[in-house]
C-alpha cells in the first residue's frame, strides 16, 4: 500500500489504544499467524525448489538457465528440457512459472541498449526498478508504471501489468516492436509493420509464443511528478472518483475495509523542486490495520469507530512529495500478500467495488488489506484485458499468512458478474472456454501459438489447461 | 514485522520513522558494498541489493551487524534454507532464479559480514 506518512500517525494511534488495553491487548494486537508450511528446499533428486513471491506456487526445475545473448537463448530454448518457463520476479500468483523442466531467467539480458528520439530499446530481463534510472539518464521515462518495481520488463509485458491513469495504457500498450526467441531456435522481429499479427499476439502472451528478448518502447520526456496522498470517507471518494480520473495524470484509491475510509493518491506533472518521499512506511500502516483486525474483529461497529478515531489526525495531514516519476509511481512492497485483480468495464467499476467492500465487511472480518481501484486506457493487444475499451481494476489482497480461498467463492463472482477480465498474473479460476468468451481474438491466438510451438515446449500444466482444453 | 506498539513508539518518538536501530551502514556504504567475486556481485546486485541495501525495507541491511548477528547465530544452514524457501518478508529464492544453495551461502556470508567464518 502506498499510504506513507499517515502510516506512522496511524500506527502511533493504534499503539496508544493497544497500550490502553494492557498486556493482553498488546499480545492480541501483535498476533501474527504462523508461517505457512514451506515445501522442502530440495526434492528427492536434489533439485532446488522455486517458489513465487507470495509462496503459494512452487516446483522443482531440473534445469535453470540464464543465457547472456540472443544466440545462446535461442539455442537453449531449442535444446533445454521442456517445459521451458521464463521467470522474472515471480510476482504472479497464478501458476505461470512452475515447471519441472527448465526455469529460464533473463537477468543476464538486462539494460537499455538504445534511445533514439522517443523510442527506447530495452532487454526484457530489465527490472522495472532499474529501467527508471536507466531511462532518466537519457532524459526519458516510461509514461506509466505499476506500483511494484521488482518485475522484469518481459514478465510485466507478458501478463499485461499496468499502472493507473485514465489516459495511460498498460506497459505493453507503449511497445512498438518486439524481438522474440522461438522454440525452433530463431529470433523473430515484429511490429505494426512487420509480422503485425505476431506483434498483436505477443505483447501479452504469457511466455507461450516464444520468449520476449527485447522490446522497443515509446517513452516520454522525464518529468517530476507531484504526489499527494490523503484520507477521506469512502463515500466521498466514490462520488469524486470519475472527476479525479479525468483531471489527474494518475489517480488511484484504496478502500480501507472496516474503516469507512479511502486513501486517495494522485500524481501530476510539475516543475516544482524535488521533495522526496522519505522511507517506506506502508508496512506499518498494514501492521496497524492488522492490529485493529486482531483486536476488534468481533464487532464491525467498534472496529470502524476505533479506526476513525485513530485516523482523524492523519486525515488533516496529507502526504506531499515531488520527485521523478519512476521514484514515486513504483515502489517496494515489503509485506507479502496474495491478490485477485479483475479489470472491469469502466462504468461498472465503482458499483462493483462497493459490492466487494460490503461483502468483505459482511462475510470476512479477517481481512485487513485495503482494496485498490485503478483506471487503465485501452489498447489493441489480442489478449490484453484492456482490449476494446477503458477498464477499471479492482484488486483484493490478503496477507500471505492468511487464507485466500474466499476470493474465489465471494469476490470472483462479483467481479465476473460486472464484466471483469482477470489480470493474467493474479488469482482467478477461469478456464479456456471462459477466456474464449472474453477475447474476440482468442482462437487466432491459439492458432498462432500452435504454429509457433506445435509440441507445447513452452506450456506448463496451467497453460496447457487454458490453451489446449 | 515488528510489534505495533514498538512501531508506534518508534514512529512518534523519532520524528516519525527515522528508524530504531543504531549503527547500520551509511547510504553511501549501502550503495557501494558488493561481493568481490564478479559472478556473485552480479547476483547480489540483481537480487539481494534491492531489499538488503534499502533502509526501511524490513530486510537486514548488508554489513549491519546489529541486524545480522542474531540471525547468524541461528546457523548458516538455517539462513540458507530460509533464503531458498522464503521466510517472513523474505521471498523464496530472494528474487534469484539461478542461485544455487552454495551461492546463497556465499551471499549470506557476504551480507552478514562473515566471509572469514
Task: Label this structure with key terms.
heterodimer; A: 469 residues; alpha+beta; Vanillyl-alcohol Oxidase, Chain A, domain 3; Uridine Diphospho-n-acetylenolpyruvylglucosamine Reductase, domain 3; 2 domains; nine-stranded mixed sheet; five-stranded antiparallel sheet; 15 helices; 24% strand; globular; disordered N terminus; B: 117 residues; mainly alpha; Cytochrome Bc1 Complex, Chain D, domain 2
Overview of this protein structure:
Chain A is an alpha+beta fold. Chain A has two domains: 224 residues, FAD-linked oxidases, C-terminal domain (Vanillyl-alcohol Oxidase, Chain A, domain 3, 3-Layer(aba) Sandwich), CATH 3.40.462; 147 residues, Uridine Diphospho-n-acetylenolpyruvylglucosamine Reductase, domain 3 (2-Layer Sandwich). Chain A is 34% helix and 24% strand. Chain A is built from 15 helices and 21 strands. In chain A, the strands form five sheets. In chain A, strands 9, 14, 15, 16, 17, 18, 19, 20 and 21 form a nine-stranded mixed beta sheet that branches. Chain A has a five-stranded antiparallel beta sheet with strand order 6-7-12-10-11. Chain A is globular. Chain B has six helices and no strands. Helices cover 51% and strands 0% of the residues of chain B. Chain B is mostly helical. The N terminus of chain B is likely disordered. Chains A and B meet through α1, β1 and α8 of A and α1, α3 and α5 of B.
Amino acid at each position: 500500500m502506498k499510504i506513507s506518512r499517515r502510516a506512522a500517525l496511524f500506527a502511533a494511534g493504534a499503539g496508544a489504544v493497544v497500550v490502553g488495553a494492557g498486556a493482553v491487548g498488546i499480545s492480541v494486537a501483535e498476533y501474527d499467524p504462523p508461517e505457512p508450511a514451506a515445501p522442502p528446499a530440495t526434492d528427492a533428486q536434489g533439485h532446488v525448489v522455486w517458489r513465487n513471491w507470495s509462496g503459494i506456487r512452487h516446483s522443482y526445475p531440473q534445469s535453470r538457465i540464464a543465457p547472456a545473448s540472443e544466440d545462446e537463448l535461442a539455442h537453449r530454448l531449442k535444446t533445454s528440457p521442456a517445459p521451458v518457463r521464463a521467470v522474472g520476479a515471480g510476482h504472479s500468483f497464478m501458476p505461470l512459472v512452475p515447471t519441472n523442466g527448465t526455469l529460464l531467467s533473463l537477468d543476464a539480458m538486462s539494460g537499455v541498449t538504445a534511445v533514439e528520439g522517443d523510442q527506447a530499446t530495452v532487454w526484457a530481463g530489465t527490472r522495472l526498478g532499474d529501467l527508471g534510472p536507466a531511462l532518466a539518464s537519457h532524459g526519458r521515462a516510461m509514461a506509466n508504471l505499476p506500483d511494484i518495481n521488482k518485475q522484469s520488463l518481459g514478465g510485466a509485458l507478458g501478463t499485461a501489468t499496468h499502472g493507473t491513469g485514465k489516459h495511460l495504457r498498460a506497459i505493453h500498450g507503449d511497445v512498438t516492436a518486439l524481438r522474440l526467441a522461438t522454440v525452433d531456435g530463431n529470433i523473430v522481429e515484429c511490429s505494426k509493420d512487420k509480422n503485425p499479427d505476431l506483434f498483436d499476439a505477443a505483447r501479452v502472451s504469457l511466455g507461450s509464443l516464444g520468449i520476449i528478448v527485447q522490446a522497443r518502447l515509446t517513452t516520454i520526456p522525464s518529468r517530476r511528478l507531484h504526489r499527494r496522498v490523503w484520507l477521506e470517507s469512502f463515500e466521498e471518494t466514490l462520488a469524486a472518483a470519475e472527476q479525479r480520473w479525468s483531471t489527474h495524470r494518475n489517480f488511484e484509491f484504496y478502500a480501507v475495509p472496516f474503516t469507512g475510509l479511502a486513501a486517495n493518491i494522485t500524481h501530476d506533472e510539475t516543475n516544482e523542486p524535488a521533495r522526496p518521499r522519505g522511507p517506506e512506511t506502508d508496512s506499518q500502516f498494514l501492521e496497524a490495520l492488522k492490529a485493529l483486525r486482531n483486536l476488534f474483529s468481533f464487532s464491525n461497529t467498534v472496529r470502524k469507530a476505533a479506526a476513525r478515531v485513530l485516523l482523524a489526525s492523519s486525515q488533516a495531514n496529507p502526504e506531499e512529495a515531488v520527485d521523478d516519476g519512476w521514484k514515486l509511481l513504483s515502489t517496494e512492497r515489503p509485506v507479502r500478500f496474495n491478490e485477485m485483480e479483475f479489470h472491469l468495464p469502466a462504468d461498472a467499476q465503482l458499483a462493483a467495488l462497493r459490492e466487494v467492500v460490503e461483502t468483505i465487511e459482511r462475510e470476512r472480518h479477517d481481512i485487513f488489506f485495503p482494496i485498490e481501484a485503478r483506471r487503465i486506457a485501452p489498447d489493441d493487444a489480442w489478449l490484453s484485458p484492456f482490449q476494446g475499451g477503458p477498464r477499471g481494476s479492482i484488486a483484493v489482497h490478503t496477507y500471505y499468512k492468511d487464507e485466500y480461498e474466499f476470493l474465489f467463492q465471494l469476490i470472483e463472482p462479483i467481479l465476473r458478474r460486472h464484466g471483469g477480465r482477470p489480470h493474467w498474473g493474479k488469482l482467478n479460476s477461469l478456464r479456456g472456454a471462459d477466456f474464449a468468451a472474453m477475447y474476440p481474438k482468442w482462437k487466432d491466438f491459439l492458432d498462432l501459438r500452435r504454429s509457433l510451438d506445435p509440441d507445447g515446449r513452452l506450456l506448463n500444466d496451467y497453460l496447457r489447461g487454458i490453451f489446449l482444453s | 514485522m515488528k510489534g505495533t506498539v514498538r512501531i508506534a513508539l518508534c514512529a512518534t518518538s523519532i520524528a516519525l520513522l527515522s528508524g530504531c536501530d543504531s549503527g547500520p551502514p551509511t547510504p553511501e556504504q549501502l550503495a557501494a558494498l558488493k561481493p568481490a567475486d564478479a559472478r556473485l556481485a552480479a547476483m547480489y546486485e540483481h537480487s539481494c541489493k534491492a531489499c538488503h541495501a534499502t533502509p526501511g525495507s524490513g530486510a537486514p541491511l548488508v554489513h549491519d551487524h546489529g541486524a545480522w548477528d542474531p540471525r547468524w547465530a541461528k546457523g548458516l544452514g538455517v539462513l540458507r534454507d530460509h533464503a531458498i524457501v522464503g521466510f517472513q518478508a523474505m521471498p523464496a529464492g530472494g528474487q534469484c532464479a539461478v542461485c544455487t544453495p552454495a551461492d546463497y551461502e556465499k551471499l549470506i556470508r557476504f551480507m552478514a559480514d562473515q566471509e572469514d567464518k
